[in-house]
Known about the structure:
Layout: H1 2-7, H2 45-48, H3 62-65, E1 81-84, H4 85-91, E2 96-99, H5 100-106, E3 115-118, E4 127-130, E5 133-134, H6 136-144, E6 148-150
Parallel strand pairs: 1-3, 2-4, 3-5, 4-6
Amino acid sequence: MASEENTILQMHDLRPAPGAKKERTRVGRGEGSKGKTSGRGDKGTKKRYQVRPGFEGGQLPLYMRLPKLRGFKSPFKKEFQVVNISTLAKLFPKGGEVTVEDLIEQGAVRHGYPVKVLGDGECQQAFKLKGVKASASAKSKIEAAGGSISEE
């Protein structure tokens, strides 16, 4: 009697025969939806084999079109603003004490950059320069005229 119960077919035991059920074809969704190209679309190098990053299909690539970096720029380089002795003589005809603030007021230099005095021109006035650097020729001309330079 127990063996007869096992042979009775129940609703939950029903299954389609293997291979009898296929998923419906999704119409209008392209070739890739059918599994034909494994989701790679159709034709072309990128579908057949991967190309390297930056490859532009034979067009001159961006990294070759851009200008190359020439040389080296130090991020720590100090950019000095230069003032010639001839400019000092024009701005301060009487000589005397000259600071960076005085040069900024006169419009000879901009605020926020170190200042260097160069030896172009003649110096008859005695300048007392404070807070600036000076070239060797400028230093000798200023000291010869009775002036001085301090880098404070």
